Request: fold
Amino acid sequence: MNADPRSSLSSALSDRYLIERELGRGGMAVVYLAQDRRHGRPVALKVLNPELAHALGAERFEREIQVAARLQHPNILTVLDSGETAGQLWFTMPFVAGESLRARLDRESQRSTTRTTRAWSIATSSPTTSC
Reply:
């Protein structure tokens, strides 16, 4: 296998997907923005970290794919495709443009902190009556 996992995956999937750029990475996988050549749509391509697959086995990732493929809810993205290519497990889901989950959590945390600070300021500046 090629020393660059992205390069070997990109070559192996070139008839189906065009990998454009990395969207994010975690301890278990890397997610890329890719173009689905057959359907002409952007997809998120999630690829299991090869070192993790060798160390822990691929079963957990395969379970994630199976569970995600069965879920049907308006707020959950469905699995479009999956497979093993160039020794790497992967699956695709619809790409949704917008901010990352991390950015949203950071923004919501800041908003919550601001609201709490404002409420505390109002509460402590209001005169209270004691009996």
